[in-house]
Design brief:
Elements (H helix, E strand, L loop, with lengths): L14 H8 L5 H12 L8 E3 L3 E2 L9 E2 L2 E5 L4 E7 L6 H15 L15 E7 L12 E7 L6 E12 L13 H11 L13 H10 L6 H30 L6 H26 L4 H8 L3 H5 L2
Parallel strand pairs: 5-6, 6-8
Antiparallel strand pairs: 1-4, 2-3, 4-5, 7-8
Helix pairs in contact: 6-7, 7-8
Length: 301
């Protein structure tokens, strides 16, 4: 199997890495703390229940929504956490579609007395890229339905928080809040060789312990390596296609060519990774979670 040079701590911007840190019941206090810092007292989250991350539409032709992470708070509020490593043209549209899917599911089927009272739905987008149309000095965006004339909140049970991590450039001495500490940690975790003194607090100590690559089991290390490889291959494919396109001076059709070429390459890479994991004895359900491929397809490899 191909070997990878990794840092002391896992990369939270890989699919596997993020779910390792925040996506399981034993580690939910990490996600609770991060969300409470994000909401700045607007909402206090006491507990979370993890929900399935795939939601199907009511009709066969409806497109399913597959969330990176979906949780429900103790008061019924729902939180979608999406980690987006590379630019996606319709990322905002996808986020709106996801929140709309959860709102629609709250309708009481068959009830004649439903009052349309809804539970809050929030989406947090942790992005390793920047929106084209955002302010260059603003990396944290809190979005709600407001009245345009006054700026007053019109509806407070639907909210979006987008974090453009490339714009967060504070140094250790410039950090001024627990939220700053979280952002610094997420951005720099995979580059750290030691735990900074200012992050030696119970919640962060637990995160560092979970993120320590040397603490991973053989299967977990293998899964992490494959997640890293898929990410690196994707980024390298994007860089290569864009470079060749510019070298030829081809402007028209480049975007479409990139999408088709990268999509084909990513799918083939998933198959290759899945075959390697299967040959190494990994459980098909685990392989499916890592690669996103259906178990039926994995059985045929």
């Amino acid at each position: 199997m191909e070997k990878f040079t990794t840092g002391r701590f896992i990369d939270p911007f890989t699919d596997w890495g993020f779910k390792r840190l925040f996506g399981s019941e034993p580690h939910k206090e990490l996600l609770i703390d991060f969300l409470n810092q994000l909401f700045l007292g607007e909402r206090e989250i006491i507990d979370l229940v993890y929900n399935k991350n795939e939601h199907l539409g009511e009709l066969a032709e409806d497109r399913k929504a597959v969330f990176d992470l979906l949780c429900t708070g103790s008061n019924g509020e729902q939180f979608i956490i999406e980690v987006q490593r590379v630019y996606q043209e319709y990322f905002k549209d996808r986020c709106l579609y996801y929140t709309s899917s959860l709102i629609r599911e709250q309708a009481l089927v068959g009830s004649t007395k439903w009052t349309y009272q809804l539970k809050p739905v929030y989406l947090i987008g942790l992005m390793d890229f920047c929106f084209d149309d955002s302010h260059r000095d603003k990396f944290l965006h809190r979005i709600q339905l407001t009245t345009r004339d006054t700026g007053e909140v019109f509806y407070d049970k639907l909210g979006f928080i987008f974090i453009e991590m490339p714009k967060f450039d504070k140094t250790e001495t410039e950090l001024s809040s627990e939220l700053d500490n979280w952002f610094y940690l997420l951005k720099n975790l995979s580059k750290l060789n030691k735990i900074p003194l200012f992050l030696r607090k119970p919640v962060f100590s637990k995160l560092f312990n979970i993120a320590e690559v040397s603490n991973l089991t053989k299967d977990e290390k293998m899964a992490y390596d494959h997640s890293l490889k898929a990410q690196w291959d994707y980024l390298n494919s994007m860089d290569y296609v864009e470079k060749k396109g510019f070298e030829r001076g081809v402007k028209e059709g480049v975007e479409e060519g990139i999408k088709k070429g990268v999509a084909k390459g990513i799918h083939q890479e998933k198959l290759n990774n899945a075959r390697a994991m299967k040959d190494n004895g990994l459980d098909l359900q685990l392989i499916g979670k890592i690669t996103g491929l259906p178990v039926e397809q994995l059985k045929a490899l």
